[in-house]
Specification:
414 residues; mainly alpha; 18 helices; globular
């Protein structure tokens, strides 16, 4: 019964019968489990304690991201650096966008990065003649990078927040462990891009003159200062105050700035369009995963992890998590894997390898992560259809090799 609830819920999330939002299906699955007595009220309070902080941080970051976007912060950043150039090297443009992708993913989560960077790429290439094929390459590789580079900070990905909370990993400890693997992943992506595309794309791209407006320098500097202060406070107060509270304070500050320097209407739209459903989504999904845990599936997975770890070290752990993430999405695999590794009393390096696999390895298929589904949706909104086979081809190459690079970097650290 529990396995059936899990499978049906996952199928509904991806097939979307009746066109409901994903959180509706996880809520229905959790409600069915509660009605039939598979979870009790005590379990619900325990699960809420696990997910409230992580989802609150994610929602806050997306609201901050939306505020900055509506004020023109990100477009200003791009056009201040590129707007006056008439010609730029394709490789240097990729390096610039890859660094920007890493910064956005680190501070505003992988979902925030997709929401910001995808329209930005369309805006940049709209100023370049005959760039459709080059734009597709940039879109796919940077779409993969948005997840692959969401590892350095606890706040960089919902999966990071959940894992850090579950295994009691501090903000500083997480950063010092994951910075090198994240850097290795970025280097692998760049090297692969250079090897695969240096002869397939023009050496230089010519820009038409852009009429993009930029925000005032004073507001731009204030926003940069606030972002820096937010990250510093996350490092300093992680052990004292839940990250959700810090995020809420800065969310309110950015909303006030948006209301003053943009408009109250823009501020209201940001508030009402925030993805509050992620609370129900995470809560419901965790309830459903707990059903499999009760049925002993996590013990079985723990045995599989132990077997592969014995023969392949942490690469074996990463392989199992990577396969699971691509089969039924990285968030369910992360939750299930966390429970399994906890029951195994796994070492810290196994936990981080599992997390890297769920973040980076989940880009092999379109259903591997919710950020990928969001990315496809944004491309479709721009009337730009990317063939799935094309995505899978590059996803297999870039995600597997960048994951190997990240795991190698993790072995250097721990």
């Amino acid at each position: 019964m529990n396995l059936v609830i899990f499978i049906l819920t996952i199928l509904c999330i991806f097939c979307r019968p009746f066109g409901f939002k994903p959180y509706i299906y996880t809520s229905i699955g959790a409600a069915i489990a509660l009605i039939f007595g598979h979870v009790d009220v005590e379990n619900l309070f325990y699960i809420f304690g696990l997910v409230w902080d992580s989802t609150l941080v994610l929602i806050s970051l997306i609201i901050i991201c939306s505020c900055l976007d509506r004020m023109g912060f990100f477009h200003s950043l791009v056009w201040l650096l590129l707007g006056k150039k008439k010609k730029i090297s394709s490789i240097w443009l990729f390096i610039f966008l890859l660094i920007l992708c890493g910064i956005l993913s680190a501070i505003f989560t992988n979902d925030g990065c997709v929401l910001i960077l995808t329209p930005m790429i369309f805006a940049i290439f709209s100023c370049i003649k005959d760039s459709k094929r080059v734009m597709m390459i940039f879109l796919i590789i940077l779409g993969i990078a948005s997840d692959a580079l969401s590892n350095p900070l606890v706040i960089s990905n919902l999966t990071n927040i959940i894992t850090a909370n579950y295994f009691k990993l501090s903000f500083l400890e997480f950063f010092t462990t994951m910075f090198i693997p994240n850097l290795c992943s970025a280097l692998v992506i760049f090297v692969l891009f250079y090897i695969c595309f240096r002869k397939k794309i023009p050496r230089y791209l010519e820009f038409q003159k852009s009429n993009e407006s930029v925000m005032s320098k004073s507001i731009f500097r204030i926003c940069n200062a606030l972002i820096l202060l937010f990250v510093i406070l996350c490092f300093m107060l992680d052990d004292k105050i839940p990250l959700g509270f810090i995020s809420i304070i800065f969310t309110c500050i950015f909303l006030l700035i948006t209301a003053k320097y943009s408009s109250i209407k823009e501020c209201r739209e940001v508030i009402f369009k925030a993805p509050y459903g992620v609370i129900l989504f995470s809560f419901g999904l965790y309830c459903i995963i707990s059903l499999l845990h009760k049925d002993g599936f996590s013990s079985t997975l723990a045995e599989v992890y132990a077997m592969f770890y014995e023969y392949m070290d942490i690469f074996g752990v990463a392989l199992i998590s990577c396969i699971g993430a691509n089969m039924f999405n990285n968030l369910p695999m992360l939750l299930f894997g966390n429970l399994s590794l906890d029951s195994l009393n796994a070492s810290e390096i196994m936990v981080y390898a599992h997390l890297l696999a769920c973040n980076i390895g989940a880009k092999m298929t379109p259903i591997g992560s919710l950020a990928t589904l969001l990315w496809f949706s944004l491309c479709k909104q721009k009337n730009y259809d990317i063939p799935i086979w094309q995505y899978v081809k590059y996803g297999l190459i870039f995600s597997v090799l960048s994951l190997c690079g990240a795991i190698g970097g993790l072995m250097l650290v721990l």
